[in-house]
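Memo to structure team: turn this sequence into structure tokens by end of day. - J.P.
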Amino acid sequence: MLSRLIAGAPRGTHIVALGRHDGTDAFEVRAAIDKHLTLDFVIVYNMRDFETAVRVVSDGRVPADEIVTTIVPRSEMTAAFANLESATTAGKVVVLGS
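Reply from structure team:
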């Protein structure tokens, strides 16, 4: 996942890897350096990061269909997150409000 993000990122991009990820991910450090990318690895968003994430997805600058792996109703939220914790691939779960 990180290698795809780095390859597609324009020069000067700030990439935030969010949440718990127990697997391994490899990427070309030189590619990130050459593009002057900033990579942050965090457990939680701050409000500014969250607002930026929502904006770039809604503007179409980040293709949500490539990173959202599961969409579930609220009634299936617990099971969806349990599956995400045991998954071998990274992804995002979107919980529908109703």
